[in-house]
Amino acid sequence: MAALVLDHTILDTRTPAPLSTLLFGAATVVATWEIRARSRAVLKDLTGAQLADIGVTAADARHEAAKPFWRA
């Protein structure tokens, strides 16, 4: 029997996850990607003074803003 014990609960790893769990996971990933894309777009437009206020160098900001949304 393939099973996983987690917090005294035995989970049968042979049983596929319910569709709702898969959809929730997918929605979470998409929301994370959207937050990254928006944050990086804003970061790209910050001034030097604003970057200094948040403790980020211009080079670090450019590097982060250049990343694709799917990359952490």
- Main beta-sheet annotation: 2 strands, antiparallel
Shape: elongated
Measure the end-to-end span: 36 Å
Low-confidence stretches: none
Approximate helicity band? 55-70%
User: Spatial order of the strands in the main sheet?
Assistant: 1-2
Number of strands: 2
Rg value: 20 Å
Task: Give the overall pLDDT as a whole number.
Answer: 87
**Topology as a string of helices (H) and strands (E):** EEHHH
Determine the strand fraction and express it as a percent band. 5-15%
Class from secondary-structure proportions: mainly alpha
Output the number of helix runs.
Answer: 3
Tell me what you see in this structure.
- The protein is mostly helical.
- 58% of the residues lie in helices and 11% in strands.
- The chain has a two-stranded antiparallel ribbon with strand order 1-2.
- Helix 1 packs antiparallel against helix 3 (58-66).
What's the helix and strand layout?
Elements: E1 3-6, E2 9-12, H1 19-44, H2 48-54, H3 58-66
Antiparallel strand pairs: 1-2
Helix pairs in contact: 1-3
Task: Note the main attributes of this structure.
72 residues; 3 helices; mainly alpha; two-stranded antiparallel ribbon
At a glance:
With 72 residues, this protein is mainly alpha-helical. It is built from 3 helices and 2 strands.
